[in-house]
Design a protein that fits this description.
This protein has about 110 residues and is mainly alpha-helical. Helix content is about 65%, strand content about 10%. The chain has two domains: about 1-45, no CATH class; about 45-110, no CATH class. The protein has helices at about 5-15, 35-45, 45-65, 70-90, 95-110, and strands at about 20-25, 30-35. Helix 3 packs antiparallel against helix 4, helix 3 packs across helix 5 (about 95-110) and helix 4 (about 70-90) crosses helix 5.
């Protein structure tokens, strides 16, 4: 997508509070999508897409929380812990070995 058009579209979305930039991590702005928009997108996903998405989330969470526990990593994990717990503890959580490993890892962090 053309950068200027993307920025214009992003500006409109911000104007209606659909998205917002909240903070920076390593010089990169973090874009937050309104929960209602997330819910609408999720509701329109097929069951197969939801399973694929959840599997991807579990893998990302596992990688994030397996890193060395130095001060910088601890602080970064604290920023994202609520983003990890939501998908892991949702009613559609899949009980797999990979899921159990992630929950164990997050539990050790807490």
């Amino acid at each position: 997508m053309h950068y200027i058009k993307f920025q214009e579209a992003l500006s409109e979305l911000k104007r209606f509070s659909v998205v917002k930039h909240t903070f920076k991590i390593d010089g990169q702005e973090v874009l937050v999508i309104h929960r209602l928009v997330q819910a609408v997108v999720k509701d329109q996903m097929t069951e197969r897409d939801v399973k694929q998405f959840r599997s991807m989330i579990i893998k990302i969470c596992f990688q994030a929380f397996l890193q060395e526990r130095n001060g910088t990593m601890q602080a970064l994990c604290r920023v994202y812990i609520s983003q990890v717990l939501g998908p892991l503890m949702g009613p559609e959580a899949s009980m797999t070995e990979e899921f159990a490993n992630v929950v164990d890892c997050v539990g050790q962090f807490l």
